[in-house]
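User: quick one, fold this
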Amino acid sequence: MAQTTLKPVDKGLTAETELERMLAYNVDDLAGNRIGHVSGLWVDSRSDIEFVGVKTTWLVGKTHVFPAQGMQVNHQREIIRTPYHEDVIKNAPAFDPGDELNESQQQEIWTYYSRYGLKRGQTTQAQGSQAGAQTREEARIQLAEEQLKVGKRQVEVQGGGVRLRKIVRTQPVQQNVELKREEIRIERVPAGQAGQGTPAKAFQGEDIYIPLRREEAVIQKEPKVREEVRVGKKTETERKTISEQVRKEELETVGSRSAEQERRDQQRGGNADRT
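Assistant:
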């Protein structure tokens, strides 16, 4: 099938058709991670999108290509969500977005993605777009939303701790104490008051030593508890509001009228006939 190449245009400034506007859309992978933006679209003779080119930073000057089958398009948010993970797109075939894709290049793309479950002929899922829509009597679409769950963990407060350390300081202390000392006291007693009789050792040399004593201060130091310092922790609870972005899927319907709208139009028409 022949393919027609559309070249990139400025985002929403000069684009005239929906396809040209899509060339400025962002591209997310299956997990919702932003992997780049649309740089090329390849369509068939009916202007249905066959392949999408993603401009990323992985390979400079090249555009990674993936089939449009299974992708989701949100025109309101200008996002295309590919049904493949980032690693799959990263290793996908890359082509110049300004070149046409021949049969061998198309087959190379189909062969690569067939290893990841792609089967040709699947329906393209597009939010807000009728391209590749499948006709059904009824459909069920699950809409997902992210819920914010906030956990808690303990971390050390920077500069909020306390370090305990004992240091020894020296200060002078004075205390009065009474110290005794001995001195020599010499007393001469007259003969009439001294003892009577003959001296025991008359005219004999005699040497007597009487020591003198005094008291001196003896210093002892005894440690005693002066006071006790008690350091503990208490827990305070504060209320804090956590702000974060969560994603939510919404459903858009295009081009169809509900049964309630049809019923109201019929009632208005009937009332007009009666008047």
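User: anything notable?
Assistant: Helices lie at 18-22, 86-90, 103-114, 259-274.
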